[in-house]
């Protein structure tokens, strides 16, 4: 798992339900890197994507409680 995905997983562990824009702001990672990392986390079934009622154009991301953060950190 790339370091960017681990960093985002750790962020979502402490602050769940963030938009992609909020993740970019909090991690200081480029938007393209965040998109890639989110896709990798989704592929591993470690990420949940939800509809945002505040802004229908955005999704909210959180960690999948069935997945383990240790899977991300040790990969």
**Which spans have pLDDT < 50 for at least 5 consecutive residues?**
none
**Individual helix count:** 4
How much of the sequence is in beta strands? 5-15%
Radius of gyration: 11 Å
Give the neighbour order of strands across the main sheet.
1-2
Total count of strands: 2
Mean pLDDT: 88
| Structural class estimated from helices and strands | alpha+beta
How would you characterize the largest beta sheet?
Answer: 2 strands, antiparallel
Topology:
Layout: H1 3-14, H2 20-27, H3 31-43, E1 47-51, E2 59-63, H4 69-74
Antiparallel strand pairs: 1-2
Key terms:
75 residues, alpha+beta, globular
Notes on the protein architecture:
- With 75 residues, the chain is α+β, with helices and mostly antiparallel strands.
- Helices cover 52% and strands 13% of the residues.
- The protein is built from 4 helices and 2 strands; from the N terminus they run αααββα.
- It has a two-stranded antiparallel ribbon with strand order 1-2.
- β1 and β2 form a beta hairpin.
- α1 crosses α3.
């Amino acid at each position: 798992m790339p370091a960017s995905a681990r960093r985002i997983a750790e962020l979502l562990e402490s602050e769940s339900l963030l938009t992609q824009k909020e993740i970019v702001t909090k991690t200081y990672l480029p938007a393209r890197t965040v998109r890639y990392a989110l896709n990798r986390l989704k592929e591993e079934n470690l990420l949940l994507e939800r509809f945002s009622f505040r802004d229908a154009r955005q999704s909210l991301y959180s960690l999948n409680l069935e997945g383990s953060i240790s899977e991300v950190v040790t990969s």
